[in-house]
Design brief:
With 192 residues, the protein is mainly alpha-helical. Helix 2 packs across helix 7. The protein is extended.
């Protein structure tokens, strides 16, 4: 392609796009070289599991029950709802089994209806008790590294979080929102 037929402004614009393209290719190559030389993976796995026989059976039941059509489990599925990786570190076995038996009671409103019959979340309540128990065992065995994004929220008060709330949250935030650390404390008290 000859540049002789282009106007000055078109040449400048074409040059800018060419420079951006070259920069993108060089950046991609550099990132790949850096990534290949890293000792640690770029996206480390923070969910760990050592499934029991019942937990493995629960994994099968969870797939059959289409849990991954809404949830991410073992880095598979969708993000339409709660990520269940590490749920065993955030919720007790009793909470999980009670949720599976009556998911509607956990939410302050009805669960989302995606036009499917029966509703997806309510579907698990209709599973046989043996399958619900196995799924609860499976979920309880999904553990997360402490401090990871899918681990339990920090317990008790945190000076850092409290200072950030003072600086960034409006004075009315407590009336509009719920402090998840208080939920963790009340859940802990119930399970004792």
């Amino acid at each position: 392609m000859a540049f002789g037929g282009l106007k000055r402004g078109e040449k400048i614009l074409f040059g800018i796009f060419l420079a951006i393209g070259v920069f993108a290719v060089i950046s991609f190559i550099l990132m790949e070289v850096i990534r290949s030389r890293m000792d640690k993976p770029m996206y480390p796995t923070t969910t760990h599991y050592d499934f029991s026989a019942e937990g493995l059976k629960g994994s099968e039941y969870a797939r059959e029950a289409r849990c991954t059509s809404c949830h991410r489990i073992l880095r598979s599925g969708t993000n339409m709802s709660l990520n269940l990786d590490g749920i065993g570190s955030r919720r007790s076995f009793d909470y999980l089994i009670n949720f599976l038996k009556n998911p509607e009671a956990t939410y302050s409103s009805k669960t989302i209806d995606h036009g499917l019959a029966p509703k997806e979340a309510a579907y698990v309540a209709e599973l046989p008790e043996e399958q619900q128990h196995a799924i609860a065992v499976f979920l309880s065995e999904l553990r997360a590294d402490p401090g990871s994004a899918v681990a339990r929220a920090p317990e008790g008060q945190s000076g850092f979080i409290d200072e950030m709330l003072k600086v960034w949250a409006p004075d009315t935030w407590k009336t509009e929102y719920k402090d998840v650390r208080e939920d963790a404390k009340s859940e802990e008290g119930e399970s004792k």
